[in-house]
Amino acid sequence: MLNRILAIIRREYLERVRTKAFWISTLLVPFFLGAVMILPAYLAARGGGEFSVAVVDLSGRFFDPIRDEIDRLLAGDDEKLSVTLVRQDPGPDPVATRERLKNEVQNKRFDGVLVIPATMPDEGQPEYVAPNVAAFKLLNVLERSVNSVMVADRLTGAGLDPDQVRELTHRVGLKTLKLGKGGEETRDQGQSFMLAYIFVMIIYMTVLMYGIYVMRGVLEEKSSHVVEVIISTVKPFELMLGKILGIGAVGLTQFLIWSVLMAAVSAPGMVSAMGMGDIGLPTIPVQLLVFFVVYFVLGFLLYGTLYAGVGAAFDTEQEAQNFQGLVTMLLIVPMVLMIQIINQPDGTLAVVLSLFPFFTPMLMFLRLTLVPVPAWQVAASVVLMVAAILACTWIVAKIYRVGILMHGSKPKLKDLVRWVREA
Hints:
This protein is α/β, with parallel strands linked by helices. It is built from 18 helices and six strands. Strands 2-1-3-4 form a four-stranded mixed sheet, sandwiched between helices. Strands 5-6 form a two-stranded antiparallel sheet. A hairpin with a 5-residue loop joins strand 5 and strand 6. Helix 4 crosses helix 6. The longest helix has 33 residues, at 191-223. The protein is elongated, with a radius of gyration of 30 Å.
């Protein structure tokens, strides 16, 4: 029996690993991760760019204070962002001036137009008109500068000293430090969230992808009647188990390659060696990579078994869509719950949902990337998943044994229940 299962595993594994698609997808994912994790940080570290903004100050008294405030902010916060304000005469017709400047923005003379109403700071609202209103650093500097100048003007009108008020109300930033199990502190500015999101998405996509591979493999052999020849030498259970383990080994190979690459890139000194020393990438602990592989293996075995049963019960993928959708829905639900878990990874809801076997691969691993999870919860999740895999294998094996040779009729749920009872 073991030799036959190993032969099926070897066949399924080599059939897929030898394809160009496998190696292309294996190499593309690291590039994708690099683009998501390194490129934004690299661009942010390389500065915010140079901007020229035309200013129409209808009040005639705020241009200089706003320019001085912008210079003060850039000198203290972000030397790599350059903002040049160009004073514009409103003329006898401010509306016409505004339209003329819009044309000049479209002709690339200016990056945008800032209009200060004559009624400021008591009434009205400043306007910034530009083709790109997603330049968040620029918009933040403009908004903070205009706001500071308007508040200072109001304070002066009330008889207060704006400089003294600014000193007393000076903003204090929050330094976020992630606390580890051993009490160690590491700087975290959102890297944990980014790491958690990317890793969970990889588990979700690969479990779904390889689970569907199992289903399609069964459907192809069944529709071509190849399976009728195969089961003359092996038992249906052996065929199902070999197919699941063989395709799972393909996914595991990819995961091991990705894990090694991620560990290498996140190693201390690697970013500096690549010439990007001022980029702060999250360090990926080895134990996290181990859990990354463990929860993929368990998740694939659980869902791969279910997809194998769906493939055996139907003749075509179109016929299997309803039941395939139910299995896929079990994978989608934890993705919908991600934000709730991220907000309270140690909450009761997070703990309960992460222990539900069909949600565990994504949600328990998500919690592990965010906070120290008690060892008993990790152990319980693994035990419950193993129990669920054994239970699903027992049920699906009965469906597989009957359905693999069934043709012509589209079974309903009651038929599947009958197969489980009678097999």
